[in-house]
């Protein structure tokens, strides 16, 4: 009991770093507990234990701050002067090159020289695919390209590249153009990467792609294999991402199979060979937090078997988590670590009572249902807080796919072992898995195509998250709540859904998203949504859809494309993920967007809730509440002057344009109070012109996404994003 309290205090201290002075709050709780807990809990540990626990919590928060990665004095990130300057960086590759979504090769480079100057630090490198072919870890190379500072999330729900790199102790990126291999170095004769490569090649040889890559992913983890992104996305979409992450499931299989095969041998041999198999598995998958957690727990089982003691699963899980967080406290905010810990906890404490409730079913079927249900119950609140989305068919898919995943994992492990010894045998064994793997992909694809396969509910707050987990823990520890689990479910759903429903029903917000080129606007009007423009396919995937998902938007009532050259693929991608009820574009775009039929041919006025939209070939005029916005897209200064001379432009409080040079005539005609530029760069002439006319400038390249509400007016999101990632 005392050890468990101290371990929990250490974890609580690390979690408290999410709040200002959180460590001191944990200390205060420990002091209060040392005084009062004994009075209400007879079997409570001694007051000294609670006091020590509070001190450990404070020290844990300080330890976390000490371990936050910081660039060294001569780190390469400190030498970035011009983000357009082409430089040559020399160093050693530290990871196996992988394929990115943009079809470039990516790897991590431990730097040593930059243009003749000695430097330190890692760099995130991307290069053309052909330049990455044949590269391997440990190789010394010189990369010529553009060195840059990683960007933060500039849109709500967007990817924070800077925080991602900081978690890897990296503070710079390199967009490479050419790779040169340093002469005179010998090829590495051994390395984990060679074994991984041998396994993957052997399994893909007869299975083909994507079946072979999928088998390898399920054996050694998705991070070690170039699984096609369309397959990876399907698994994530239906709630099966855990199947691609080598962790507890594979560890349990290794333990079970090895101990079963070695049961005729002595206890020493059983423990030794099984421990060796776990270490081999860890080496193949890499030092991933979820894998380390599973392997540490596996060794706890082996120690218990070797000493003939009873295993305490909860104690082993808590010990594994504490040990790993002592090694790297930053893993407390690693999503993979969090989900792995919660899923394992759910399996340990929730599966037995669920099987009891399902005692009217055969044990095998009851277990098949109870395992994914328990893992889902414990991980879903965190997924809602991070992603704001519910995979509707997740439980059904998990139940149906578990037998297939078990067969593929066991067969894949046997094939991997055979591949190391004799690749031909590994290929032959992998070939036997073709039909289970092919059927699994088909099953996932079927559910991914069903309507409503995932529902966006919006991200829940930290307070909601804590309240829901408090209820789950009550249902675990308190018999009264266990007997009324239905009440726990109702209250938890109320905690999650009522605030979301209230927000959706009352919110009115206009958001100009930070995009590289085409201006994009989202208007949320009491549950109804207007989307103006989509951007290119990458903008849709990495900006528009994540934002809509974070806001809990599942349908777009009005979609408007102001650019006649708009990409039909972008709109079709949006329509595939979110139904678009009404779509308006120019006549010239009609043939390229057959899936979306409503077309405006000339001037048209659209009433969208509390927003009145005037559409014409020159741009867009929006009456948002009592405020008038005028959008000008791809209109140069000469065209602006011509527009002023031939057409009476309305007075508008907000001038929104795509960053071209502004003519003074347009400002005189429109008389804006606020100017919004959707661009990554603005000329000094434009800045000077707006300053002279005392017009407030909001600029997505500097301010990130810009949000307007009737009460709060205009707000930039970059400052908020920087504050939320301040610990990095």
Automatic annotation (TrEMBL):
<dbReference type="Pfam" id="PF13567">
    <property type="entry name" value="DUF4131"/>
</dbReference>
<feature type="transmembrane region" description="Helical">
    <location>
        <begin position="360"/>
        <end position="380"/>
    </location>
</feature>
<keyword id="KW-0472">Membrane</keyword>
<feature type="transmembrane region" description="Helical">
    <location>
        <begin position="339"/>
        <end position="355"/>
    </location>
</feature>
<feature type="transmembrane region" description="Helical">
    <location>
        <begin position="267"/>
        <end position="284"/>
    </location>
</feature>
<feature type="domain" description="ComEC/Rec2-related protein">
    <location>
        <begin position="222"/>
        <end position="481"/>
    </location>
</feature>
<keyword id="KW-0812">Transmembrane</keyword>
<keyword id="KW-1003">Cell membrane</keyword>
<feature type="transmembrane region" description="Helical">
    <location>
        <begin position="432"/>
        <end position="450"/>
    </location>
</feature>
<feature type="transmembrane region" description="Helical">
    <location>
        <begin position="400"/>
        <end position="425"/>
    </location>
</feature>
<dbReference type="InterPro" id="IPR052159">
    <property type="entry name" value="Competence_DNA_uptake"/>
</dbReference>
<dbReference type="InterPro" id="IPR004477">
    <property type="entry name" value="ComEC_N"/>
</dbReference>
<feature type="domain" description="DUF4131">
    <location>
        <begin position="21"/>
        <end position="180"/>
    </location>
</feature>
<feature type="transmembrane region" description="Helical">
    <location>
        <begin position="314"/>
        <end position="333"/>
    </location>
</feature>
<feature type="transmembrane region" description="Helical">
    <location>
        <begin position="484"/>
        <end position="502"/>
    </location>
</feature>
<protein>
    <submittedName>
        <fullName>ComEC/Rec2 family competence protein</fullName>
    </submittedName>
</protein>
<feature type="transmembrane region" description="Helical">
    <location>
        <begin position="49"/>
        <end position="66"/>
    </location>
</feature>
<dbReference type="Pfam" id="PF03772">
    <property type="entry name" value="Competence"/>
</dbReference>
<feature type="transmembrane region" description="Helical">
    <location>
        <begin position="290"/>
        <end position="307"/>
    </location>
</feature>
<keyword id="KW-1133">Transmembrane helix</keyword>
<feature type="transmembrane region" description="Helical">
    <location>
        <begin position="234"/>
        <end position="260"/>
    </location>
</feature>
<dbReference type="InterPro" id="IPR025405">
    <property type="entry name" value="DUF4131"/>
</dbReference>
<feature type="transmembrane region" description="Helical">
    <location>
        <begin position="456"/>
        <end position="477"/>
    </location>
</feature>
